[in-house]
Amino acid sequence: MIAESKRLMRVVILFILLIFPVSAAAARHMVVIDPGHGGSDTGVKLSKSVYEKDVTLAIAKLVRKNLSNANDIDVRLTRLDDKNVSPVNRKKIAGKSDADLFISLHVNAGFGMKAKGYEIYYPVSDIPSAKKSSSGEILKDMTQTRRLNNCVRFAQIVQKNMGKVFPREGRGLINAPVLGLQSLTAPAVLLEMGFATNLENKKKLRDKKIQQAIADALTRSIKKYFSTDGTS
Ligand SMILES: [Zn+2]
User: Fold this and answer.
1) pTM, whole model, 2 decimals?
2) In angstroms, what is the span from residue 204 Cα to ligand 1's centroid?
3) Which residue has the higher pLDDT, 6 or 18?
4) What is the 191 CA–ligand 1 centroid distance (Å)?
């Protein structure tokens, strides 16, 4: 019996030694980037031929390209070309990818022609405080609090980096029940990158150099978020 236990112990130790370096090396983070709109859903218009759907896709692809050589971050997009994707399917892609972070990209419009700059939305808690009594609800609440804290932390990093592309144009972090962010399990933010109704913003968002600069700001933000998160 003792010899048998020793043999079993050796097998267990060997197993642990084999598994751990592999799992450590495989500790990768999955970022799902969601280029807003697509197909017949054009989003807001930036010129005769350029729509929100084109700008969001271009920037999402640039972020993916930027991170293609990162050894600990994988990027998946909710669409790779100009097609309609329902909010349900965008959520499904995030779920199937086991996303650690979800970033939805959009372009703003409205509030008159003077309104300009970027806004960052993050989801609100959806557990009513009256229900926080059972242990299941408390656990769910703790998980959600942790997720919301991560949303805010990432939103703050993005805010800082976007400020380098659009100096003094940050319109702040907005806590709101945004469709497409609410029911996800991964920390999620929605970035409204600028206003299509503002001449200056519209011109900038169509500019390839600015698109690259926004992608670079997001890339830096993603790297920073995962290098300091403590979730791995
Ligand atoms: Zn939009």
Assistant:
1) 0.85
2) 17
3) 6
4) 9
